[in-house]
Amino acid sequence: MIWHQGPPPYLTFARLGQGQRHAVFTRLGGVSQGHLASLNQSLMVADDPTHVHENQRRAQAVLHCVPEQVVNCQQVHGNHVAVVTAADGGGVVPATDGLVTADPDVVLTMRYADCVPVLLYCATRGVVGLAHAGWRGTVQGVAAQTALVMMEAFDCLPHEISAGIGPSIGPCCYEVGPQVIVAFATTFRDEGVIGAPTRHGHARIDLWQANAAQLRAVGVRSIEVSRYCTYCHRDTFFSHRGDCGRTGRFAVYLGLLP
Ligand SMILES: [Zn+2]
């Protein structure tokens, strides 16, 4: 990924291609205080709303968009995908972990702290998709589902879709217990998603590889993995596990160029 100074600082994927605008923000460059310092973008973590709104304003200035163009969603760790237009601008789509648009007046956004951001772009048809894939969303295939909606709703061809898999908890740090291992073992066979046993039925899971494998399974070939682990880099990113559940959320924004 490419690091941009901002302010506020943000990262971009080199391989997503021309015709779209996106930014993966960090926890740096905002006004939130204490454990939410400083660029917390979530109103759901008991932050001062004036701080969150200022942080959102700073992020949206980087994207050159206004709040009325931004489509947000209520993330619920599922695999529902919504197609949105400018009519949804400024709104929050309920119970959705995948957003797709072909409307250049729309900028999609979601918030993260260890879960996997998946950015999708089809330059040929002019379509973008954004997904939120924690372990539950990954097992339910939300990233691949988002790509499939781009194909079904807008005739995108899979090999024309570029993907970016963003900062999230990495295989170095994502140790899980038997329940999660069983869920992954029934979904993934030989993709190298489940690591060697660590202790008492625990193992490390590779969410990056899992999401990449699911995207490849629906024909997406151009995939860039950021390889930033939020737990390892919790000075730069919010990490739900690294901060023991008491933390903020960083944002990803993705839209077409107007
Ligand atoms: Zn790590």
Explain this structure.
By secondary structure, this protein is an alpha+beta fold. It has one domain (2-256): CNF1/YfiH-like putative cysteine hydrolases (4-Layer Sandwich), CATH 3.60.140. The protein is 21% helix and 27% strand. The chain is built from 5 helices and 16 strands. It has a 7-stranded mixed beta sheet with strand order 1-2-3-16-8-4-6, covered by helices on one side. A hairpin with a 5-residue loop joins strand 1 and strand 2 (10-12). It is globular, with a radius of gyration of 17 Å. The two termini are 23 Å apart. The structure holds zinc ion. Zinc ion binds at residues 170, 172-173, 229, 231-232.
Topology:
Elements: E1 2-4, E2 10-12, E3 20-25, H1 49-63, E4 70-73, E5 81-83, E6 92-93, E7 98-101, E8 107-112, E9 116-122, E10 127-133, H2 135-139, H3 142-154, E11 161-165, E12 175-176, H4 178-187, E13 194-197, E14 203-205, H5 207-217, E15 222-225, E16 250-256
Parallel strand pairs: 4-6, 4-8, 5-7, 11-15
Antiparallel strand pairs: 1-2, 2-3, 3-16, 7-10, 8-16, 9-10, 9-11, 12-14, 13-14
The site of zinc ion has 6 residues, from loops.
Which class best fits the helix and strand makeup? alpha+beta
Low-confidence stretches: none
Please summarize the sheet with the most strands: 7 strands, mixed
Radius of gyration, in Å, reads: 17 Å
Shape: globular
Instruction: List the domain count as a whole number.
Output: 1
Hey, roughly how much beta strand do the residues contain? 25-35%
- CATH fold assignment: CNF1/YfiH-like putative cysteine hydrolases
Q: List the ligand species.
A: zinc ion
- According to CATH, the homologous superfamily is CNF1/YfiH-like putative cysteine hydrolases
Q: What is the tally of beta strands?
A: 16
Query: How many helices?
Result: 5
CATH architectural name: 4-Layer Sandwich
**Share of helical residues:** 10-25%
